[in-house]
Every structure is written in C-alpha cells, then in structure tokens.
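In the laboratory, one determines a bound structure by crystallizing the protein with its ligand and collecting diffraction data. In a computational setting the workflow is compressed into a single prediction: the sequence and the ligand go in, and a structural description comes out. We illustrate the idea with EPZ.
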Amino acid sequence: MEQYIMKGGNPLAGEVLIGGAKNAALGILAAALMTDEDVVIENLPDVNDINVVLEAISAIGASVVRIDRHTVKINGESIHGVSVDDEYMRKIRASYYFIGALLGKYKSASVPLPGGCNIGSRPIDLHIKGFRALGARVEIEHGVVMAHAIDLVGCHIYLDKASVGATINIMMAASLAEGQTIIENVAKEPHVVDVANFLNSMGANIKGAGTDVIRIRGVRRLHGTEYSIIPDQIEAGTFMCAAAATRGDVTVRNVIPKHLESISAKLTEIGCEVVEFDDAVRVVGKPNQTRTNVNTQYYPGFPTDMQPQMTVALALADGTSIVTENIFDNRFGYVDELSRMGARIQVEGDVAIVTGVERLTGAQVNAPDLRAGAALVIAGLAADGYTVVDKIGYIQRGYEDFEGKLRGLGAAIEKVDSEKEAMKFRLKAG
Ligand code: EPZ
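The predicted complex, in structure-token form:
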C-alpha cells in the first residue's frame, strides 16, 4: 500500500504552480458529452477522480483523446448507452453529473448512486427535485438512479440548500430543455461559474452564474468548443495553509486571487503576511501566529474543503480557536489522527475547539478523506520527526503530484510502497 513518509521541520519556501480545478473539471467533463462535436478541454488536472471519469466516458462509447497530460479531446457522437455503471464510478461523488448531462441530451440516464469522501450524509434529493421539476421521471432501484423524460420543460426551482452538485446538474439538464428555467438559491462557487461558462461556450444560454439566481433559456443543441478550466481554489489554499503551518514563504502561482480571499483573510488574521498579485498569492508565515475563529460557509464564505488544512495551522497558533463546520455533518474525522501528533482539539458536534500547541510530533496516521489527508501531510511537514500518512489514495483523488510539488518547496517527503523504501527515505533524510 502506498504511503507518504516525511520528515517535518523544513519551512516550505518557493513557488508552486496550481493546476486546474478538480471540481469544475468533473462537471465540465460530463457536460462535454452533451454535444456530438469535438470538445477540447485544457488545464485538466491529472488526478484519480478525473481519470476515473474519463474511463467512464470511454465506457459509454464517447471518444477520449489525451492530447497531453492536461488536455483532452472528447467527442460524444459515438455514445451507445445512457447507463453509466462501473465499479469505480460508484466510488465517485461526481458520477451524479452524468445524470444531468445524459438526461439533457438523450432524455434518459441510469447512474449508480454516488459514493465519494466520507464526510457525512450526502443526499442528492435536491438534484432529483430539480430533474422532476423539469418533467423527468426519476426512480432509484438497486442503488441506481434512473431518470427518463419525454420532454424536459423549463420551470422555476428553489433549492433548499445552495448545493454545488444540484446547481450544476440542474443547469446542465435545463440547458437543453424547452423554454426558461429559473433556479433560485443556487451555489455561487467558482466551479459553478466555470461550468456555466463552459456550457455557454458550447452555445447554452445561462445567465446569473455566480449570483443567487440562475436563468437558463433552453437551446435545441450544443456545439463543440475549446475551453481552459479555472485554477483550483482548494489546491491553492492547501499550499497557503502549508506555508502558514510550517512558518514558510510560499507563492502560489496561476491562481485567481479573488477566489482565495476568504483563505487569505483568515491567514492574515492569524498573523501571516499575505500579498496578492495578478495571478499569484504569497503567504509568509510568522513565528508567533495567533488564534482565530473559522466558520465554513458557501462561497464567498470560508470553504468546507479548506477546514481541515486551516485547522492544522490553528493547531500550531497561540490561543484557542473555534472552528465551526456548517456544510457537512462529519468533517472532523481527522482530529483523532491529529491528536496522535500532539494537537489539542476537542470536537463537540459541528464545532472543534482548537488549543494551539508549540509543536506537533510525527506519528503514523491514516488519511480519512481527501482534504483531511492533505491536512495530515501539512501537519507532518510542520511536526518534529517522521510522519507516515497511510491511505493516500484519498489524497491522489484530488491533488496532482502532491509530493512532487511539496518537494519543490523544500519538503522532505516521499511516496513509498514498502518498508524497504521507507527505510531508504529515513536513511537519506537522516
Ligand atoms: C461539492 O460536493 C464538492 N464535490 C465537494 O468537494 C465540496 O465539499 C462541496 O461541493 C461543498 O463545496 C464536487 O464538486 C464533486 P453540495 P457536493 O451539494 O456537490 C446538502 C472535495 O473535497 N445537500 O454543495 O456533493 C449536503 O448534504 C469535495 O473536493 C442536500 O441536502 O456538495 C451538504 O450538507 C468533497 N441535498 C450541502 O447540501 C442534495 O441534494 C452542500 O453539498 C445535495 C446536497
């Protein structure tokens, strides 16, 4: 089983190039199937979740040509079925985007109920409510969501929660419905806007993405396009928190600083120096960082996907911080692992009370999910001595060459597959 082994203590320093946004790419790849013409997608991150989706796209008959590591050409003309069912897709939350895309184009889709990171209950009732409002019949049988419609007809939908997935999914199906659809209380995350821009570049007529109300005028068909995915807000934020926790000096490049404002604000509050450039942000950690409170919220609030990484920075700041998780109901699963490294954190329901400590100590820990896994790596890089992070498959789902990028910043970290390789790393790191 692959693991990360690292020796902590080096402040991270230098520049790191941020890749394309995984969560935008997952929506965009499904949306690319909605035309029979060529779609070229650039700045695609080379991470496991994306590669699984590309395999599923091939499996239903679409052509997928990898032009280079970060560019793919997709053509959906040869799709021969609307049933997406492979064992890997069941593990990926974003498999639900195939429902909106295929239902929009073929008026029929059959997709296994999504899995994904174990961060709490993750229903898709709002997606289904939207498809039904558009006129589809939706049933769930044997773990598979089956949606069919004679015609999709524009409608007025109110989302009870500003769900990213439901907003994107309904937006895709409604792009090829008859007439106007208005979706209220939608998600405003940068990746929602990116998927809307992508669909518009294919000829869709979507207005208002990035505000609370999206209006979609259905079109008869979509056409081919070339599109470059926005930078990954969460990958960038992860390196920013790594700079803070290790008291380093890191510049994240190829980012949209506006998307990082809530993260920059929190890092400034704890005493880091944060400097914004046109397409880069520099974070300089300081020896005496101090407490703050963090409340996860929908965009533009502080992202739930940054909560574990920020908590690691707070675990090493003076004073007591309160971290409140408002989006998911089980996103403190990593706290026990962090406690084994010497962190002082008490969880009560949706709240973590973090009492800063002067130092963490290396330990063997398990990544419980994608972002928490990245947070444990940050903790290991800030800790004294060696840390081994197991179950790194979670991390590889969403971070491209995480260890390579960290090494580029001076981290002593290696991906190993055996005790012998781990021993070799220890001997080399001294
Ligand atoms: C997306 O998940 C992301 N995943 C998640 O990223 C991210 O944590 C989340 O948005 C919040 O930003 C992808 O984009 C593939 P939601 P999603 O629907 O769409 C409730 C990562 O680490 N809800 O916005 O599944 C839900 O339970 C991952 O990259 C319903 O009640 O999240 C949650 O409390 C993990 N009914 C809230 O809404 C529904 O039908 C927000 O969930 C849908 C959601």
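Residues 154 and 181 are 4 Å apart (CA to CA). Keep in mind that any predicted model is a hypothesis to be tested, not a measurement.
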